Amino acid sequence: MKHKISFILNNEKITHEVESNKTLLSVLREDFDFTGAKEGCGMGECGACTVLVNGQPINSCMMLAVDIEGKEVLTIEGLSRGDVLDDLQISFIENGALQCGYCTPGMIMSAKALLNENPTPTEEDVKHAISGNLCRCTGYQKIVKAIMVVADKNNNQ
Amino acid sequence: MKYVGKSIDRVDGVKKVTGDLKYVDDLKLSKMLYAAVKRSPHAHALIKNIDVSKALELEGVKAIKTGKDVPQRAGLYLEDKYFMAVDRARYIGEAVAVVAAITQEIAFEAVKLIEVEYEVIPAVTNALDALKADAPLIHPQLEEYYHASIFHPVPGTNISNHYKLRKGNIEKGFEEADFVYEYNFYVPHVQHVPIENHSAIAQMDRDGSLTVWASCQSPYAVRQALSVAFNIPLNKLRVLSPAVGGGFGSKAGTTLEGVIIPLAMELRGHPIKLTFSREDEFVNAFVRQGLHSKFKTGVNKNGKIIAIKNQYVWDGGAFNEYGVNISKAAGFAAVGPYDVEHIWADSYCVYTNHPVGGPYRGFGMSEIHYGIEQNMDIIADKLGIDPVEFRRINAQKEGGRTATDSYITNCGFLECIDNAADAIDFNKVETPSGKYKLRGKGFAGGMKAPSMPTNVASSAIVRLNEDGTVYLMSSAQDIGQGSDTVLIQMAAETLSINPDKFTIKTGDTDHTPYEWQTVASRITYCAGNAVVKACEDAKGQLLDLASIKLGFHKDDLMLEDGYVKAKFYPEKKVAIGDLALGLTMPDGSGVHGPIIGRGSFIPPNTMNFDLETGLGVNPVAFWTYGAQGVDIELDTDTGEIKVLRVSSSFDVGQVVNPILLEGQLEGAIVQSLGTALFEELMLKDGKPVNNSFVDYKIPTADDMPEMIIIPVENPEKTGPYGARGVAEPAMIPTAPAIANAIYSMTGVRIATMPLTPERVKKALKENKETGRTYFGVDSDYEFHIK
Ligand code: FES
Ligand code: FES
């Protein structure tokens, strides 16, 4: 059955019809071509599909699209403004925090949520915040560093 | 050097952090159809009948194909693989039929309606059982299969390859030895777990040309395999690999591409997409083969190892087209990075009714070193010699010999050993964090060569633009390891043009030049050499033109910062961009035309080994050596292990990009840590029981140790700027080093991976109760082939 829902997607007001059984991930990818969120497992276990809903990081593979009615969704595509990248995106590049890039959008969104909530986290906070985001390439050390570089910058402001 | 050796940012960084990079599953093509696969629920069964009629009636279903539609076998080294089971299913999960439908949901629905009639036959679910004389044969027609001449399938058995190494005189070695020890080890199946599941799209046009988009490491190898299997000429077959979300070997060769091509051949003009679920990925992409290993070691009182006799039995699964080469690679490196006079090694790749074994980062080296490096530690302990010192005594060194009796001319292993031991203060006792906790250190070495055929080729093309920017073209695939960036750095260095002026194009067999495969840690070396040659070719052309323009002899010209300059009169110069399309003479006439540099490379002088003895002067392009130390804490109450620090030192020849190099080593350490502590693809009677992230855990940020990386730069004579490969070697020592650390703290030796809390706890308990110290593998095996 189709439902009409209204929500904000990457700062834009949207009204859209969705099937009741479709996940947010599949609607983002298939209907809006926001393919930055990836499906790594479809079971809420890898974090590759992480987007922010009302500022909270969620596994979009586990959320039904109908449930975003009235909410605000931010995907990796909405994080940069044009070609101006978010501090986290820049830091990931500068600190070698990505390799294949498949976990990267989800990883950055989880980090973004953390920094929104707590601009000056400790390394332990960072590890905890990304512990639901699997990365098979980097060994995480450079990811933690990239996030801490932004956190330290916040600390000094 | 200006650009080689510098931590420049990854050239694919922005595309990846913005989510803009399109991986195969992100592609949407017009008229696209979606595929789903019917899979065998039996480990070994004859297929009696497949009824697709009900599935075909489902609205939205466009076509269904079964194994009968692709009866041709394929394979890289041994043609034993069916893309879909034809009359026999050989593992649980093997494809038996495939559906194309207008939506993914309909395709899944249709699969359920396919009815397959099987006759279940006895399965072989242990590689050692597979070797028994009365074992059911998984490939009864093995003797008819085509294979490369360096492999030895044994017809009438389940052995797909038997590699023999016979160096020196083993009996004499054991006679001379003061002590002889025997130990067994076992490494179970694990999976690569790239975060991107495999995905492919195939489209055949009415003119017979086939385009395949695949998340694959090796577009040219895929093109070749598909061309043979489907009888499509190479010029009508285009393979594109737009991006790869991690491979680690699982995306080498072909996996799912061949399943959808029969659909594409019928449904002309429709792209057909198949993407694995995570559950599929665990079972139907390659898995890392299980390994039973056995060592008999003769050693002298002074710590010199004289003789090693070992057996490796690889659980290769249902198809061994790729796995046979892993068993060969293991034979070459039979005793690891140690110089041993008498060696007798047998490495068998064996068919079982398990998922298909294939290349996984390390290509057999992680698995054999789990045994080799524990064996070293046990013997050091028996002799009362410090484990690091024992390795130094036996290390391969310049002037020594490898297992295949090649002369060693270039080897930084000793330096790596010292670095790794120092960085972790190997002999310093650390304080555990609490009651019931023990803290200890472990050490291991490792070596690896690019395990590739001796004559595999690479090529590169460089095209200059009139504004001084450059296109670099290669089919080396950046699967995350950073090859796009590294190749640009080498090109930038050779042409003395800033890396930010380069664009690299890869992954399109119609347009980017030949590259055998992105595997074997060979890209920096092989593709790097091709790139340097292409740039030298372009450089030669530039100097010719500049010589005319500036009136200096070629030898007196140089490239610098985008210009050709006279060496002694640097103010006399011409911009490279001004020569890119050829030289314009004062009278308006033109000379030469566009500058295109071309580079081809094959590793020099690598030659086949002797088929009887396994010996060879130069069977591999180079060896990469390294060592690691670990500092761990064990909770004796729970059996849980926390890896606190890892030091890693590898002789990389020349660091091309420090931050990317660290990334490779750190990633490898954590991957290896996962296999040491908790990863195992559990197969119960051939049935995978933990093929999801709920049940199969890989390391998370919480598992990450502190990592200390110390590169050694002992230049590779034939390497580009002296570089050699390292992405896989770095995976080798972590796991045995952890096992060695457990021993050093507890006196308990656990010979089976992974070191789960349950396994460790059980061993500690038994040790306390009975004093038992060695927890070997149950099976004891010995067999001989005529
Ligand atoms: S795809 Fe959503 S958590 Fe893995
Ligand atoms: S960068 Fe490849 S999975 Fe994280």
At a glance:
The complex is a heterodimer of chains A (157) and B (786). Chain A is α+β, with helices and mostly antiparallel strands. Helices cover 33% and strands 17% of the residues of chain A.
Report on this model:
- The complex is a heterodimer of chains A (157) and B (786).
- Chain A is an alpha+beta fold.
- Chain A has two domains: 2-79, Beta-grasp domain (Ubiquitin-like (UB roll)), CATH 3.10.20.30; 87-155, [2Fe-2S]-binding domain (DNA polymerase, domain 1).
- Chain A has five helices and five strands.
- In chain A, β1 (2-9) and β2 (12-19) form a beta hairpin.
- Chain B has a seven-stranded mixed sheet, with helices on both faces. A five-stranded mixed sheet of chain B has the order 7-15-14-13-8, with helices on both faces.
- The radius of gyration of chain B is 27 Å and the shape is globular.
- The interface between A and B is large, with 54 and 57 residues.
- One FE2/S2 (inorganic) cluster (FES) sits between chains A (98-104, 135-138) and B (195, 246, 480).
- What oligomeric state best describes the polypeptide chains here? heterodimer
Give the full name of the CATH homologous superfamily of the largest domain in chain A. Answer: Beta-grasp domain
Helix content of chain B: 25-40%
Bound ligands:
FE2/S2 (inorganic) cluster
What do we call the CATH topology of the largest domain in chain A?
Answer: Ubiquitin-like (UB roll)
Mean pLDDT of chain A: 97
- Please mark out the parts of chain A with pLDDT under 50 across 5 or more consecutive residues, or reply none: none
Number of helices of chain A: 5
- CATH architecture field of the largest domain in chain A: Roll
Average pLDDT over all residues of chain B = 96
Q: What structural class do the secondary elements of chain A suggest?
A: alpha+beta
The strands making up the biggest β-sheet of chain A line up spatially as: 2-1-5-3-4
Rg of chain A, alpha carbons: 15 Å
By DSSP, the count of extended strands of chain A is 5
Write down the Rg of chain B: 27 Å
CATH class of the largest domain in chain B: Alpha Beta
CATH class of the largest domain in chain A: Alpha Beta
Number of strands of chain B: 32
